[in-house]
C-alpha cells in the first residue's frame, strides 16, 4: 500500500510530463497518454484550469456491471467541460434536512451506471514548479456522493492559493460498488477497486 504523501508527491512530479498544453483558444486542451482532453476556464475562477468528467475506466455496464474496473481505451478527444453523472444512489422523495437546509451537500446532476469519471482543478499560475495533488474521494457511507456536489467544488480554493491540484472522482456505490453477493466470487468490492483505478 502506498503512503498518501508519497502518492501525492509522485503524482505532482509526473503530471506535467503527461499533460502538455495544446492551445488556449476558445477553451483549453491538453495532450495526455489517454488522448486529448478539452477543459475550460470559468470566469468565476479565471486562474483555474478545469477538466470535468474525464473517464478513467470503461463504463461498468452489462457484463462489466460487477467486474473490476477495466482500463479505458485510448480515445482521440475527451470533452471535459461538464460534470459527469454521479453513480447510482438512493434518494429520498420526501423532504429532509439535506433538501431543506443544506442542499449544497446533494448531487446536482443526473445518475448513471456509466459514472467512472474524475475531474481536475489546477492553477493557471502555479506558485511552484511541482505541486501537491489532493485526491478527494466523496463520502456518503458508500451509498451516496459524487463530483457535482456544490460543497465539494474546489475552484475558488485553487483560485486563491495557486499552490495545489485537486482531483475528485466518482466510484460505484451501494449494491453496484459493494454487492457482497454469494454469486460474485471475485471483486466483491468494485467500488474500492474503482478508487484504486482512478
How would you portray this structure in words?
This is Carboxylesterase type B domain-containing protein. Keywords: Signal. It comes from Sclerotinia sclerotiorum (strain ATCC 18683 / 1980 / Ss-1). InterPro entries: AB_hydrolase_fold (IPR029058), CarbesteraseB (IPR002018), Carboxylesterase_B_CS (IPR019819). There is one protein chain. By secondary structure, the chain is α/β, with parallel strands linked by helices. It has one domain: Rossmann fold, CATH 3.40.50. It is 19% helix and 23% strand. It has 5 helices and 10 strands. A 4-stranded mixed sheet has the order 1-2-3-5. A 4-stranded mixed sheet has the order 4-8-10-9. Strand 6, helix 2 and strand 7 form a beta-alpha-beta unit. The longest helix has 15 residues. The N terminus is likely disordered.
Mind summarizing the main beta sheet? 4 strands, mixed
In CATH, the topology is named: Rossmann fold
The average pLDDT value, as a whole number, equals 81
CATH architecture: 3-Layer(aba) Sandwich
Spell the H/E element sequence: HEEEEEEHEEEHEHH
| Largest sheet strand order | 1-2-3-5
The total of beta strands comes to 10
How many structural domains?
1
Helix content: 10-25%
CATH class: Alpha Beta
How large is the radius of gyration? 17 Å
Parts with pLDDT < 50 across at least 5 consecutive residues: 1-26
Q: How many separate helices?
A: 5
Which percent range describes the beta-strand content?
A: 15-25%
How would you describe the shape? Answer: globular
Query: In whole angstroms, how far apart are the ends?
Result: 15 Å
Keywords: Signal
Organism: Sclerotinia sclerotiorum (strain ATCC 18683 / 1980 / Ss-1) (White mold)
Domain Carboxylesterase type B: 29-198
InterPro entries: AB_hydrolase_fold, CarbesteraseB, Carboxylesterase_B_CS
Amino acid at each position: 500500500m502506498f503512503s498518501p504523501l508519497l502518492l501525492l508527491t509522485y503524482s505532482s512530479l509526473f503530471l506535467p510530463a503527461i499533460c502538455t498544453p495544446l492551445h488556449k483558444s476558445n477553451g483549453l486542451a491538453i495532450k495526455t497518454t489517454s488522448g486529448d482532453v478539452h477543459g475550460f476556464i470559468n470566469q468565476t475562477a479565471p486562474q483555474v484550469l478545469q477538466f470535468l468528467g474525464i473517464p478513467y475506466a470503461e463504463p461498468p455496464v452489462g457484463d462489466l456491471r460487477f467486474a473490476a474496473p477495466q482500463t479505458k481505451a485510448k480515445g482521440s478527444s475527451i470533452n471535459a467541460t461538464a460534470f459527469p453523472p454521479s453513480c447510482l444512489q438512493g434518494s429520498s422523495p420526501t423532504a429532509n434536512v439535506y433538501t431543506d437546509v443544506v442542499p449544497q451537500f446533494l448531487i446536482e446532476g443526473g445518475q448513471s451506471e456509466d459514472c467512472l469519471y474524475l475531474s481536475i482543478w489546477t492553477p493557471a499560475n502555479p506558485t511552484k514548479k511541482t505541486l501537491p495533488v489532493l485526491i478527494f474521494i466523496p463520502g456518503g457511507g458508500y451509498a451516496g456522493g459524487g463530483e457535482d456536489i456544490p460543497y465539494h467544488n474546489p475552484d475558488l480554493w485553487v483560485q486563491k492559493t495557486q499552490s495545489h491540484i485537486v482531483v475528485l472522482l466518482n466510484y460505484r456505490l451501494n449494491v453496484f460498488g459493494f454487492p457482497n453477493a454469494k454469486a460474485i466470487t471475485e471483486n466483491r468490492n468494485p467500488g474500492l477497486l474503482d478508487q484504486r483505478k482512478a
